[in-house]
């Protein structure tokens, strides 16, 4: 299906077929104006003489320039930078005891999906490796209408109530006086806010962890975050949390790499997703559910309605129920990835909301923002947004209406239209909201059960491996080190001390500050004047679970190599036989081997065979690869090239797998790799299989503490 126009693809799912109605290609076609008039000069405007003024009459020029002038639409206020792909979802088991949603009960279905990954804070043109939460939004085109699971790559969010969303976003976005910094949270306004809104500390800790600098979109978990409801035919409801578990494991890059990747290839994640799909290595996730019986709503040490909490997998295991495969790149970025409109309020019968106050606020925001972003209320008609099942109602008119609704009737009830479109009965799949009993005072308040702000960040930190903890400490130290207000740093240190003493001490020493014994109480700010502030103060951390393995990337690995990138450093006279052996093996496991040589074009091996060069040294960087291979042969040109040593030293420092064969040993000796002859991922004259396994383990993080001296 790769590289082919949509119409040439062999198997079209229902959504691909639907998109075809609007897909167009100029191949073999004559150029026309938007009005269909054939054009025979697209380079010269109509003038009064060859050197004269341009005439207003030139409808071809006017049309072309006018359209160009209006090509831009507002970027998303958050999640502006993103990439997307098509695919499908299929179910492993019939879940009809829990839900009546067709895509979760019918084992014969392949439900088309469109998935968009994103960063949150940066602009549309910002770099992919920003330290940030990633969006993970899935649109299911089900036979009963659209279901959007608009999640993130962390299981919790920063705030508990939608009321605070504009504040946290204003705080993290570039500061409004200078519009600095772009796509970065390391600045005063963000930490001013975080240190006052202590509920944010938990998600913030995830944002300081390696999860915020993923190796690839394909190697991230996804989470629906909020507790939703599944409702079955008998109107019985269960609470549910949604999870996406990646087939390739959960992996990240180091901060040093992230900073360099942003310069070397700001589209690193976008390219990785695109290339993997084009190469036929389709990214895959399993859908997992944590199901909680309604009767257990209050049995946890936290509130299920509080989006700053996850349910540890030790308390409620994740039940794997299906898988999602992304197998087709979009044809047009703007028409699909940019115009797609997700909404947590797009649900289908069998799924329902809960009273999570963050979710409730989201239900308003998405359509509202899309009205201005996409220019009016008809954006549901855009090809990427329309469902695969028919749409009939009495909504009419407005800008850019595509549908031509026939007849006189645009109201209900009616007799003139035969009572159509008629109402569906529940048995026919009509949506009915879950009948939750509500008996309450109208009040601007927050439940005391939302007051535990420290226990889960503490559990998260305890659950990390040593290398993950070190990365997190460095991230805090970097970010707070970029703040200019000492009062903000001190407040953050005091708060970190409430979470974990060792974490706070380590960050304090890197900042060169002492943890204050006390600070002004970090009372939540947005409560009504009459409320008692003490009711909203965070309570001390509890320890209801020692550790949760699921929180650490250490336990989220896999043995897959699909679309992993390996740099083979070569120059004329290299050992072609060894390269072929290694390449064949690695490519057999789905990896991509690039020949990196002194120049573009071709490079000749010792047998005088020409091999096409994938990248010249000057056009690429070590940080763009997962591993480095030196096949040996004549390596003199490599030994005298500073870029090659930098390439290898960086790979050593970033704990990657390196394999040296034959004469490559000299390069090992000449580089930082010489100090790591016992390292399990730095291999000399070993089987390709060992190298493959080392690459699949992603990194040898045990090496990291020994690499401080390597200057790169
Ligand atoms: Fe969003 N969010 N959000 N958000 N969100 C948007 O909608 C909003 C929240 C998420 O790829 C916007 O169409 C509010 C949580 C993703 O197109 C906007 C609140 C989670 C995407 C909006 C939240 C998300 C968005 C901007 C607090 C994870 C990108 C453009 C109440 C569960 C979707 C748009 C895409 C996008 C509002 C909180 C995920 C402004 C008010 C929690 C993945 O409507």
UniProtKB/TrEMBL annotation:
Protein keywords: Heme, Hydrogen peroxide, Iron, Metal-binding, Oxidoreductase, Peroxidase
Cofactor: heme
Pfam families, alphabetized: Catalase, Catalase-rel, Catalase_C
Top EC class, one word: oxidoreductase
CDD domains given in the database record: catalase_clade_2, GATase1_catalase
Keyword Ribonucleoprotein: no
Catalase core domain: residues covered: 32-420
Purpose: Decomposes hydrogen peroxide into water and oxygen; serves to protect cells from the toxic effects of hydrogen peroxide.
Similarity comment: family membership: Belongs to the catalase family. HPII subfamily.
Protein name (Swiss-Prot/TrEMBL): Catalase
């Amino acid at each position: 299906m790769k590289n082919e126009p949509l119409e040439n693809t062999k198997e079209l799912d229902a959504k691909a077929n639907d998109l075809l109605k609007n897909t167009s290609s100029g191949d073999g076609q004559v150029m026309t104006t938007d009005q269909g008039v054939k054009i025979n000069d697209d380079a010269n405007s109509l003038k009064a003489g060859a050197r004269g003024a341009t005439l207003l009459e030139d409808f071809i020029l006017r049309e072309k320039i006018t359209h160009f002038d209006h090509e831009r639409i507002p970027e998303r206020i958050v999640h502006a930078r993103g990439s997307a792909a098509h695919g499908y979802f299929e179910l492993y088991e019939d879940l009809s005891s829990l839900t009546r949603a067709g895509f979760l009960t019918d084992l014969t279905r392949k439900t088309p999906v469109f998935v968009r990954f994103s960063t949150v804070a940066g602009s549309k043109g910002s770099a992919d490796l920003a330290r940030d939460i990633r969006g993970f939004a899935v649109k299911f085109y089900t036979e009963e209408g659209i279901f959007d699971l608009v999640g993130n790559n962390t299981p919790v969010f920063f705030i508990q109530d939608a009321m605070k969303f504009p504040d946290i976003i204003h705080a993290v976005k570039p500061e409004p006086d200078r519009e600095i910094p772009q796509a970065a949270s390391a600045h005063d306004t963000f930490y001013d806010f975080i240190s006052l809104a202590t509920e944010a500390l938990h998600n913030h800790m995830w944002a300081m962890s390696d999860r915020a600098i993923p190796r690839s979109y394909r190697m991230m978990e996804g989470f629906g975050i909020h507790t939703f409801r599944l409702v079955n035919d008998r109107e019985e409801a269960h609470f549910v949390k949604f999870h996406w578990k990646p087939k390739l494991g959960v992996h990240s890059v180091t901060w040093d790499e992230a900073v360099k990747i942003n310069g070397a290839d700001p589209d690193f994640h976008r390219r990785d997703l695109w290339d993997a799909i084009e190469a036929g290595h389709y990214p895959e996730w399993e859908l997992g559910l944590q199901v909680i019986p309604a009767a257990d709503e209050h049995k946890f040490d936290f509130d299920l309605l509080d989006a700053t909490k996850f349910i540890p997998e030790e308390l409620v295991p994740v039940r794997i129920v299906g898988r999602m495969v992304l197998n087709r790149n979009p044809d047009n970025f703007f028409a699909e990835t940019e115009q797609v409109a997700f909404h947590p309020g797009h649900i289908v019968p069998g799924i329902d909301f809960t009273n999570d106050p963050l979710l409730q606020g989201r239900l308003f925001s998405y359509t509202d923002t899309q009205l201005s972003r996409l220019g009016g209320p008809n954006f549901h008609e855009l090809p990427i947004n329309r469902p695969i099942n028919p749409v009939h109602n009495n909504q009419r008119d407005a800008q850019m209406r595509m549908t031509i609704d026939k007849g006189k009737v645009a109201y209900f009830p009616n007799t003139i239209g035969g009572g159509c479109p008629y109402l569906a009965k529940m048995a026919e799949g009509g949506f009915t909201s879950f009948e939750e009993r509500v008996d309450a005072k109208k009040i601007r308040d927050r439940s005391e059960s939302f007051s535990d702000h420290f226990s889960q960040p503490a559990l998260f930190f305890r659950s990390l491996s040593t290398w993950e903890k070190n990365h997190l400490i460095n991230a805090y130290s970097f970010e707070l080190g970029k703040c200019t207000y000492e009062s903000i740093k001190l407040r953050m240190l005091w708060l970190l001390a409430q979470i974990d003493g060792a974490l706070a001490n380590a960050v304090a020493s890197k900042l060169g500050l002492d943890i204050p014994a006390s600070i002004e109480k970090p009372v939540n700010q947005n409560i009504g004047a009459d409320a008692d502030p003490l009711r909203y103060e965070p309570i001390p951390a509890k320890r209801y679970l020692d550790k949760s393995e699921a929180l650490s990337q250490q336990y989220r690995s896999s043995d897959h190599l699909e679309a992993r990138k390996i740099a083979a450093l070569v120059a004329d006279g290299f050992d072609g036989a060894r390269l072929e052996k290694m390449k064949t093996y690695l490519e057999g496991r789905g990896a991509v081997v690039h020949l990196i040589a002194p120049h573009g074009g071709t490079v000749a091996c010792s047998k005088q065979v020409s091999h096409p060069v994938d990248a010249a040294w000057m056009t690429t960087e070590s940080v763009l690869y997962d591993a480095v291979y030196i096949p040996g042969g004549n390596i003199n040109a490599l030994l005298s090239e500073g870029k090659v040593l930098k390439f290898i030293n960086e790979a050593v420092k970033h704990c990657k797998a390196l394999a040296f064969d034959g004469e490559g040993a000299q390069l090992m000796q000449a580089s930082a790799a010489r100090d790591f002859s016992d390292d399990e991922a730095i291999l000399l004259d070993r089987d390709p299989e060992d190298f493959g396994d080392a690459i699949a383990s992603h990194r040898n993080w045990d090496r990291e503490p020994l690499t401080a001296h390597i200057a790169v």
